[in-house]
Amino acid sequence: MSTPRPLRTTSLPVRKTAAMSAIGAMMLTGACSVENSSSSSPDALRIVLPEEPPTLEPCDASLTSTGRVTRSNITEPLTERVPDTGALEPKLATKWVQASPTSWTFTLRPGVKFHDGTPFNAKAAAYSIERTVNSDIECNVDGYVFGESKITATAVNDTTLKVTTGSVDPILPLRLSFVEMVPTTTNNKAKVREPVGTGPYKIDSWKQGTSLRLKRSDTYWGKAPDYAVAEYSWRAEGSIRAAMITSGEADIAVGMSPADGAAGNAVEYPNNETSYLRIDATKAPLNDIRVRRALNYATDKNGLVASVFAKLGDPSGQIVPEGVTGYNPNVKAWPYNLNQAKALIDEARADGVPVDTEITIIGRNGIYPKAAEAMEVVQNSLLEIGLKVKIKMLDVNAWLEYLLRPFPKNLGPTLLQAQHGNQAGDAAFTMGQIYGSKGAQSSFGTPELDSLIKKAELAAGPERQAAFAEALAYQNDKVVRDVVLAHMTGILALSPGVEYKPNSATGDEMHLAEMHPAG
Q1: Of 112, 129, 279, 409, which is most buried by a Cβ count within 10 Å?
Q2: Band of the pLDDT at 147, cuts 50, 70, 90?
Q3: H/E element holding 483?
């Protein structure tokens, strides 16, 4: 079997902090009970999320709110990356070889069936790839993972799949770890809300606005997971999610902060998320690089981490964290310098740049703990340097309209509160979609940066690392498309009755098969 070389990752110890326990104990003295939203059996795992998934469409599984329910639970890919090592392992493909510089052959796992009883075979695999990459349904995975890549998938026989690329792609098997397999009966003209997959769980019921219930598949090809049922509910307030754990009404709660009151149930873990503000550099005054630099100087990243993020993060100047191929150790967080920021704004104003035009921060409720408070801190700093700024907080469905192309029309200048997680460990899964001129999540790019990104995508080994590091440095020095805030640290709350070790991918995908009754 031929696989890409293992990608470097970082791994920090999982720990329950004494500080969190102390804060939680104080807050819980006044906590009220939370009404249980679903009846549970002893073999049911209960998970409470910050928000309801907008969809379970498999080709949108690269979105956090979708992927943490769907990926390797309902649907499965051909290959799967191990978060702790970066190694690529078989899933629905048992092996793969590079037959030529632009052609790969995958051998598929025999005897696998979809939840509807139809067989998983090379025709289904080819259909899934074509639906994700070459259809007109605007899959997030397409923009995030493949960008402008040309991919053709063909079934050779039931268990042999040939995938051809338009140009050399040394990490194709890694890219395919993001393509979830679906049967050929899946609509390829529109997205589906409730998919059929091959995973250990299938959808039992979805009561919109209330709960989602998955049940164990009796026909799963692999080892059966411990829990017969997984029940998801959602509560926007972190303190309510924490109270559901301490009262025994939920087993796992995600998206927690130290102040939520999870006490000794709080588990801290390293994740791969980086928080940032995307600058729409196509509109004045944000189309002037002096203004974009001023935004960075005016944002106190150390202060944000120390206060709003409760020290759960590290200030950063780049969107990919250490351990991702392409990370540039020389790109540091911008220093906090209000005087420099004010001087840049005054200089731009003197040159006729309309710096008095109101800028809107588009925020997302629940994107991370204290999301609204973080944007208020940023707003206050930008007001202090003489800009006019307002905040518009949205729920996830409305916010997605601003995150993904095509963007809403007739907008004024905006800063979008965002968070990016590089689940794959390679900057190719960041640079094109985030910074490319035609990237799915890109509001602005330049031909020079596009060229650097393309050069890096075609490289391999040490040359790949150096090329992506160069592109990241160019973005930070010459483009300044973002205000990068911090590489984040995650917290979840875990009941004493459940064993689960979170990892760097937990924020994006939570494998139910890795969760077990304690003892």
Answers
A1: 279
A2: confident
A3: strand 482-494
Q: How far apart are CA 275 and CA 258, in angstroms?
A: 18
| CB contact set of 205 (below 8 Å; sequence gap of 6+) | 211, 212, 213
CA dihedral of residues 296, 479, 439, 398 (deg, nearest 10): 30
Report the alpha-carbon distance of residue 178 to residue 71 in Å, rounded: 9
Distance CA 402, CA 278 (A): 10
Q: What's residue 229's pLDDT? A: 98
Q: What span, in angstroms and rounded, lies between the C-alpha atoms of 378 and 418?
A: 13
Half-sphere exposure of 111 (CA within 13 A, CB side): 5
**What DSSP assignment string belongs to 46-72?**
EEEESS--S---GGGTTSHHHHHHHBT
Residue 241 φ then ψ, to 5°: -60, -40
* Residue 297, helix vs strand vs coil: helix
Tokens of 510: 């939570």
Q: Which of 257, 179, 307 is nearest to 493 (CA)?
A: 257
Q: How far apart are CA 159 and CA 181, in angstroms?
A: 14
Q: Distance (Å, rounded) from C-alpha 505 to C-alpha 273?
A: 9
Average pLDDT, the chain: 91
